[in-house]
Amino acid sequence: MPSNSTKNRIEEIRHLVADSDLNLASRRLLDFMTDFMTSSDLLRHAVDLRAKYNELMSRDTQPESEMDALRVEFMEFIESLENEFRRNDTNYDYSETKSSQVRKKSVCRGKDITKRYSSVGFALTDIQLDMKQGEITGIVGENGNGKTTLLRIVAGDLSLDNGKITYPALEVKEDDWYSIKQNVAFIPQRLKSWRGSLKDNLHFSAANHGIFGRENEEIVEYIIHRLGLTRYRNSGWSEISSGYKLRFELAKALVWHPKLLILDEPLANLDINTKLLFMQDLRLLANSERYPISILMSSQQLHEVESVVDNIIFLKEGNPLYNGKVTQFGEDRLSNTFELAGDFSRVELTNLMSVFPDVEIEETGQSFLVDVPTETEGNDILRHLLQTRKIDYFRDISRSTRKLF
User: Do residues 264 and 189 touch, judged by C-beta distance below 8 A?
Assistant: First the structure.
């Protein structure tokens, strides 16, 4: 019988198909095929299913009969997959042995990272890093506070004025920057245009990293369909949107399996749905059993970033106001903080909140920050305000780095 890990993953995919979420189901299926050393024939079949889904969704309408037929194909494939694992159970233990050990390694470790720009009076100071495989680290803060500088230092594009940076999991010499950069993919905020078709550029990227022949063909086909680029495979730069240009850049990196992926403000020009899908993909890709990636990204989109990252660094004027696990932020807080907006002025909100003790209110333009003792919960405030006022927006930011802005 398949191991518990494989059975759980297969069952997850089956439930997604049953719930008609073929987008996530087909992506999770391809991730599963990569993680658990299945046959090449089954992998090609899974890629074909994802391609069929992408092509169907690219049409103006999706007939229910065709969607139903595709769901049946997915269910039949899942049955074939389970049968394959029953026959070859002993060959598929990768994720429960090797991967669990690899994940503990640090891809990049930095101590007291410092970079000074004397001409403008700015310094990035005393940054500590420990980025492990399978983890996402977010760098947040306002513009001009050192986010891009830190990314470029980690990418090896800027030298340090003080401190030290190493790449233990890459297993190369500390000063062998050629070998280090062969394992690091950097996606800048301003993407460079390219010539030719999207597909040809992916083939070139793979070949540039020593992947040729049939392996090159297969990895490019896989990545095109996995990232939803099917309809744009033969398109040029001017024929695709900003969101798909970003996906192309991600695909260009993933064809050669980097150990460290660095992204500078990847969410800046994306609509809300594209942001959520992109962040979901980053989380899934980082979690890969066979190719776990350490991801470092900067952003001002706090809520989207905090929902998926493991670690977060908040920079203010080059200094880390917080640097640690995202789940640990606010553990030692002395108050709760809520961000809200509605049909009231600051004076009106102050009067409405007078029934609660020790309230502090700050106006931030289009919303208010309400600070209260930890004994006062958000449900209490929301319930009270809704008795007489319309609330347009309400969010608990007590454990969000939004408090530091």
Answer: yes
